[in-house]
Write a structure and sequence with these properties.
This is EcsC family protein. By secondary structure, the chain is mostly helical. Helices cover about 70% and strands about 0% of the residues. It has one domain. Helix 1 (about 5-20) crosses helix 10 (about 210-240), helix 2 crosses helix 9 and helix 6 (about 140-150) packs across helix 10. It starts with 5 loop residues before the first helix and ends in a 12-residue tail after the last helix.
Length: about 250
């Protein structure tokens, strides 16, 4: 199995430290501000967003595997990562354009951005998995994508827990539920909503919605791409026995 190049390994180590940091004071204050902002929206809006997140994730993740490319079997690690970056540019630009359109369309069209962006993110993860050589027809590989998603879009407290599962995936995957309905959807969707609300709620505001939607979507895809690459780098290191990244790295 191909080795990670030194720059990629350095990026992985720095990412591991970020995933294990303790929640900061700024993070706690941000969560409080987010809670106040959420309180300004009607409960029906929150319920609609929550339902859209759950149904979109389950529909894409467990019903669209036939649209995903075949796992890449022969490429070097450098070739895989170059392909992932190219794929990220495509999805990032598509998400930015979609955010600008829905943001310019007012409140109702702005709400439509949530399921549309979710679908793009999940399809991106399917493509990344295939480029790194993993077959998403395997149920546990699809659940791995959910864990990547949680790492990218959760509070630091939740990240600490999810990171440990990802870092020890070969052992943890054997404890996964066989029924998708047993997955903790409530925590998944609530963490996602709480994470993106501050950025995405402003997209519903007239005049500035288009600009906010484009920038927010661009950055959210960028963050998802960074998280996905490092999660698969971690698995490659485990498989190649080149390191033992499952051992916690002290947070700085």
């Amino acid at each position: 199995m191909a080795a990670l190049e030194e720059p990629a390994l350095t990026e992985l180590r720095a990412w591991q430290r970020r995933m294990q940091q303790k929640p900061t004071l700024l993070g706690r204050l941000t969560r409080r501000a987010q809670a106040r902002l959420n309180a300004l929206l009607p409960e029906k809006v929150h319920a609609a967003i929550t339902a859209a997140i759950k149904q979109t994730v389950r529909g894409v993740l467990f019903g669209s595997t036939h649209t995903t490319r075949r796992p890449e079997a022969t490429a070097t690690m450098a070739e895989r990562e170059a392909a992932v970056r190219s794929t990220l540019r495509y999805y990032r630009n598509t998400a930015a354009a979609e955010g600008a359109v829905t943001g310019a369309g007012g409140f109702l069209l702005g709400l439509a951005d949530f399921p549309l962006l979710l679908g793009l993110k999940l399809k991106f993860l399917f493509d990344v998995a295939a480029l790194y050589g993993y077959d998403v027809r395997d149920y546990t590989e699809r659940l791995f994508l959910l864990h990547i998603f949680q790492l990218a879009f959760s509070s630091q407290h939740t990240r600490n827990d999810v990171y440990q599962r990802v870092a020890n995936w070969d052992a943890y995957r054997h404890t996964l539920p066989t029924d998708v309905h047993e997955f903790d959807w409530r925590t998944f969707q609530q963490e996602y909503r709480d994470y993106i609300d501050l950025a995405k709620m402003a997209q519903l505001v007239p005049v500035i919605g288009a600009a906010v939607g484009a920038v927010a979507n661009y950055r959210l895809l960028e963050q998802l791409g960074d998280t996905a690459m490092n999660c698969y780098r971690l698995r490659w290191l485990h498989a190649a026995n080149e390191a033992t990244p499952a051992t916690p790295i002290p947070a700085t």
